[in-house]
Amino acid sequence: MKIGILTFHHIDNYGATLQAYALWSFLNSQGYDVEIIDYRPFKIALLYFKALLPLKKVKFSINESKKIRINEKSFINISKSWKMRRFLLSHIKLSQRKIYDKKGLKYYHDKYDVIICGSDQIWCLDSFRGYNSSFFLDFVNNKTTRKISYAASFGNTIKLGDFQKEICTLINQFHTILVRDSNSLKIITNECNKEAIKVLDPTFLIKYDALKSPPKIKDKYLLLYIQADLEPEEEEFIKLLAQDQNLTIVSVGNANKLAQINLETASPQEWIGLYSQASYIITNTYHGTVFSIIFQKLFSAFVPSDKSNKVTDLLADLGLKNRIFSGKLKHQLLNEEIFKIDYESVSSTLELKILESKKYLVEAILQRAIDI
Fold first, then answer.
1. For the chain, how many structural domains are there in total?
2. Boundaries of domain holding 188
3. What are residue 219's phi and psi, to 5 degrees?
C-alpha cells in the first residue's frame, strides 16, 4: 500500500523534524511505500524564509515606522535550516512535488491508499499558523483513500469556536482518529461526538542509536534545550544545579547567556547525540521532555502555559509529574529526589504504551487492505 503523511516537517525545529522522521521511519520499517507530502503553506514558508535574510525590518515603538536593521542571526539561521533540510532529504522520502497552497494539494486527493495527518500540533487554532483545513485532510477523496490521524494535537486550543461545524464535519470523515493528548481527546469526543484514542508521539516508536552523533565535549554537562525566555527563578535553578553538580552548561538550538557552550546550529544527529550523553537536561519544550525520557536522563521540565496541556499530560501518564519545576521548589536541590528517577517503572509503562500505539496505527492501516 502507498501511504502519504501530512505533518509539520519543513521548519527549523528538532522536535517537528524528528517526529516526522520517526513516523515515516516506523511505517517504512513495516514494509509500506510511504512518503511525506512536501506541503509548505506559503505564508509559513515565507515567514521562515525572512529569518534567513541578512536584513530585517524592526519597529522600535508604536508610533515609529519600521526601519531596516542587520539580521545578526542570518548566518546561524541559514546554517541550521540547511542542516535540517539535508537531514530530511537524506533520511526521509518526500513527495516529488513541493506544494505551497491548498489548491496544489488536490493533486494528492487519490494518489494514496492511506493518508495520515500528524503528529504535532497540526490542529492547533491558536498558533501563528491559525486554522488550516488541509491538516484535516479536506482535499482527500474518501472513496479512494483512507483518512487517519496519528498523534495529532490541538495544542493549547481548548474550544473550536467558530470553526466547530467545519472541523467536526471533516473529523467525521476520518476512519480512525489517534490523538496525542487528553485535551485533544476531549475536544474530539465532546465537540465532535467522535471516538478517538490517545497514543504516544511517534518519536517513541523507534530507536536512535544509528542516528546519533556523539558530542565532542570532554566535561560532564547540563544540557539546556530552551525555546522561550526563562523566569529569574528558573535561571537561578540552572546556575545552582550546574554549580552543585560541577557541570558545564551547554545550550543547543538557541544561545543562552547561562551557557559556557552554545551550539545553535546543531544538526538533528548532533542534537540527539547531545541528549544521549548529557548528565542532566533542562527543557521547556515537549519534544525536549520526550527525548529526556527516551534516553532515560535526569531532567527537569519548565512548563510554559502554552505547553502545559501536552507536557503535563505526558508526564502524568508516565508517573513523572514531579519532574515539573516550580519556582516554589528551589529547595529541591537539597533533596536527593531530584537525582532519582525510577526508569524501571517508567519503562514498564512506556513499553506497554508503545506496543498499544503501534497496534492502533497498524490496525488502522490494515483495515484499508481489508476494504480493498
1. 2
2. 2-206+353-371
3. -80, 155
